[in-house]
Amino acid sequence: AAFEDGLRVRKVGIADNAALRLSGKISQLYADQLVRREGVANIELNVVDVQGNRHFTKTYTVNRIEGSPITLATGVLASIDDLREVLERTLSELVDKALDDPELRTALQI
Fold first, then answer.
1. What is the Cα–Cα distance from 25 to 94, expressed in whole angstroms?
2. pLDDT value at position 110?
3. Using CA atoms, how far apart are residues 83 and 95, in angstroms rounded to an integer?
4. What confidence score (pLDDT) does residue 13 get?
5. Would you state the pLDDT for residue 75?
6. What is the pTM of this model?
7. Which of 100, 31, 28, 27 is nearest to 65 (CA)?
8. Cα 12 from Cα 44, distance rounded (Å)
9. Among 27, 24, 25, 1, which Cα is nearest to 14's?
10. Which one-letter DSSP state was computed for residue 67?
11. In this predicted structure, what is the pLDDT of residue 77?
């Protein structure tokens, strides 16, 4: 849904019968707040045609670190909602990074 939303924001139409398809495999998606809040997202995206021929493959990674290492707002007593927000921002940044990549846009013909 995140990539569909990102394409809609960029005014790119999505059709079930499109000649090309975007698929992906998330290899990392996590957040922690042991010292600072950190989110990590890693995805491999593929553009394939309807016959399954791969036209493009690329891995995108985002490492997001927020906050000060000297704080009482992290660790085992920290807010889980704050951690969720870091993970959401990390995923959003990853989607933007991928969909704004000129190589991917060329492969998708957008």
1. 13
2. 81
3. 19
4. 79
5. 59
6. 0.83
7. 31
8. 21
9. 1
10. S
11. 63
Ranges of the chain with pLDDT below 50:
none
Give the 3-state secondary structure of residue 47: strand
CB atoms closer than 10 angstroms to residue 11: 7
Name residues whose C-beta falls within 8 Å of residue 42's C-beta, 6 or more positions apart in sequence. Answer: 26, 27, 28, 29, 59, 60, 61, 62
Instruction: Tell me the residue type at 63.
Output: N
In the chain, what is the straight-line distance between the N-terminal and C-terminal CA atoms, in Å? 19
Tokens standing for 21? 């398809």
Contact 21, 15 (CB under 8 A): no
What's the pLDDT at 2?
A: 86
Task: Decide if 93 contacts 29 (C-beta within 8 A).
Answer: no
Give me the pLDDT at residue 1, please: 80
pLDDT tens figures, 79-101: 788 889 999 999 999 999 999 99
Where are the strands (E) in 3-107, listed by range? 20-32, 37-49, 54-66
